[in-house]
Each structure stands twice: as C-alpha cells, then as structure tokens.
Amino acid sequence: MPAKRGQLRIITGKWRGRKINFVDRPQLRPTSDRIRETLFNWLQPYVQNANCLDLFAGSGALSFEALSRGAKHAVMIDRDPQVITALKMNIEKLAAAEQVTLIQTDPLTQPIKLAQTFDLVFLDPPFQQKLLAPSIAWLIDNNLLAQHSKIYIEAEKNLLELPIPAKWHIMRDNIAGDVRYSLIDVI
User: Fold this and answer.
1) Residue-wise pLDDT tens digits, 33-46
2) Contacts of 183 by beta carbon, 8 Å cutoff, 6+ apart
3) What structural domains does the chain harbor?
4) What DSSP element (H or E) covers 149?
C-alpha cells in the first residue's frame, strides 16, 4: 500500500518500515523509495559511522535512511520553519535527538559555521533554481568535506553537466522519471 501524501517510509535498518511525515508542498520532492533504495545500495560501504550533511533537508528522508542504516550523525539544514517543525517531530518520533543536529537557515545567504567535516553529503536543492554550483562552492569554501567524501546530487534530468570540480569523480549517475541522481567521490 503506498504511503499517503506527506508521508514516506524508511526502507531498511533499525527504523525499517517506520513512517515519517513531511510538509506537503509542490517544491518539496522527497526522494522516491526506488531512488533511495538504489542510492543506499551504492552507499552501503560508506554509511556505517558516517557523519552526514543534508543541505536542503526537506523531508529528511535521506538523513533518516542513513541513520537507520548505521550513520553516526546527521546535520539537517533547511530554511523553511514548517519543514523544521516536521523534522523536529520526526526526530522525536524516532528518538533520534542524539544523532541529529537541526539548523534552520539558508547557508548560501546566511553564513553559518559547522565545526566538522562530513563523510556523506546529500545535495538535493529545489529544481530550476541554480543552487547546485553555489552549494558545492559553499561546501568547498567552508572545508566541510572529509577526504573521499561522497556527495549525492539530485537534480532535474535535463541538467547535462554537473557543476563539480574537474578532479571530483562521478561514481554513479542515473535518471528516473524527471530526476537525475548522481554519486560523486570527492578526490
């Protein structure tokens, strides 16, 4: 039975089958079950004990899935107060307060300092707003990437070239429906 609008399920791990709620808005596109399953198959060797950054957290599905599968900690950032409220409720529902840092801001316009580097970064900005390049620049400028970090990028399928540095390596790249999704190795 499919999840109702504004709700999705965690695929596997300690929270397998648990449902989380999110703000149902046109610009908020939670990563589909199919893509999340593929992504986390790709990430399987890298998730255990990883520190994660979810820059446009939205539903929080990617961070919650990573934590469910053994990631150590996730920093979720979103600027929308209603999204933050829904994330807080899901963190409470999953008893995940020790594993999550939740920040309400737009880091591209309001500077914040994060005192750590990240092994996994989930970069899934709203489509058609040209936020990938400035987000990647922000990650680099703030030294937020651990050596050999993995960055998951979700973008509109017609984006022909990802705005990543030449030395970074595209490990996986696929299209499903209107979504291009890629896994990048930071070299």
Assistant:
1) 899 999 999 999 99
2) 39, 42, 43, 150, 151, 152, 153, 170, 171, 172, 173
3) 7-185 (3.40.50.150)
4) strand 145-156
What is the model's pLDDT at position 2?
Answer: 43
d(C-alpha 82, C-alpha 80), whole Å = 6
3-class SS string, 11-64: CCCCCCCCEEECCCCCCCCCCCHHHHHHHHHHHHHHHCCCEEEECCCCCCHHHH
Angle at 152 between CA 149 and CA 153, to 5 degrees: 130
Give helix 33-47 / helix 61-68 axis angle, nearest 10°. Answer: 50
* Amino acid symbol at 2: P
- pLDDT digit string (tens) for 7-18? 899 999 999 999
Q: Is the pTM of this model over 0.70?
A: yes
